[in-house]
Amino acid sequence: MIFMVTIGLEVHVQLMTETKLFCSCSNKFTTIPNTHVCETCLGMPGSKPRLNKKAVEQAIKIGLALNCKINHEMFFSRKSYFYPDMSKNFQITQYEMPICFDGFLELNGRKIRIRRIQMEEDPARLIHEGAIEKAKNVLVDYNRSGTPLCEIVTEPDFTSPQEARLFLQELSLMLEYLGVYDPNTEGSIRVDANISLPKGKRVEVKNVSGFKEVERAFSYEIIRQSSLLKRGQKIVMETRGWNAESGTTISLRSKETEDDYGYIFETDLPTVEVSKKAMELKYGMPEFAKQKVERYEREFRIGREMALSIVSEPDIADAFETAVKEIDTHISATFFSKMLKKVLNYENLRLKQTGLETKWLITIMKKLENKEITDRAAELLLRDMVLKPQDPEILLKLRGLTRIDTEEALDPIVLNVLSKNSLAIIDYKHGKPESLEFLVGQVMRATQGRADPVITRKVIHKRLDE
Question: Of 298, 338, 347, nearest to 320 (Cα)?
Fold first, then answer.
């Protein structure tokens, strides 16, 4: 029996501001708990919130990028609930009048509708000692309390976990180009999902981080609900958490309705007029990844796959556009889309995290363009540089990676390789061409990628045909 699934998302995005939403505490990440706090974000009696103007501007940018309508004015409300992550027992959020509404994001030729975008403060971080369902103690870190959030609420337009994951990847890239959030910060995007099957109740899966985990969590929950329905059991309307270690969702509490929160107007904050600011920001929107891909295909004549790889990180796209002014287009595109991305992916790093300077990357590409180094040598340089950023000119001398491109220099190296690989020589004599590539690879290994592959083949041919 196959059930049609309906998924709606609530995406919580931590905004990249210097200070928190309602106080002047630092919004920078720190590993030392409960140090970026004050009376306001600790919820002390008598403390008063003060609205962060920069956070409002970033929320408007998100709304404009998602084709939303911007409310002429907005105000904040108190959402009451009793939980240790919100010390004052209510969260300052938006309910009746959010900052943005009625938008969409295009995904694979169709529109995923955005119901609303609202601003709110992040609760504190709860740290369970051990597995969440067995933890005897819970610690609370209030550094995160008061962090500016945008909650992006979609319509229930998703029909699979895979589609939800693609949407989040597209949304994340858009937000990164906007410059409103840092994808390298832990918990910068957290996702709640409302998942329902026909004849079943809506179940909320809460606080999932990471795109792979989103797909895993949603897939498990769909299987869990399907199994209940197949056995004739009822699905209970509830909130469930995701346990990544066990790969299961666990029941947290019965699902509240909006009426349960007892929203009231936040009297300590004024109504804010946003329409004028929206018009100002509308004309300063950046060029997004999709637009860059189209321009790269048109302007630089590079393939779509290459273009998509380059725009996958704004910093790579910026570096490419600087480099292509000095370096051949094909060399630049290949270097960034294949060689650099390969090294970064292997180390699980983003360009921004490495400290690499664009001028250093241009130096490597110039040496490739002038045939001073081989592709292999360039990759070895990058491998060292992403872990220990330094000028490639210095590293090149230390590593001795200059190109070996004369027959005289390569001949003794080839002879040494041939003397150790008699079986490959026999295979070559018996008409197996792959043995030649094996021998070339051995020469490249012996020279740490410095040997010119064209001249290497020529020398090997000459020696084997003697």
Answer: 338
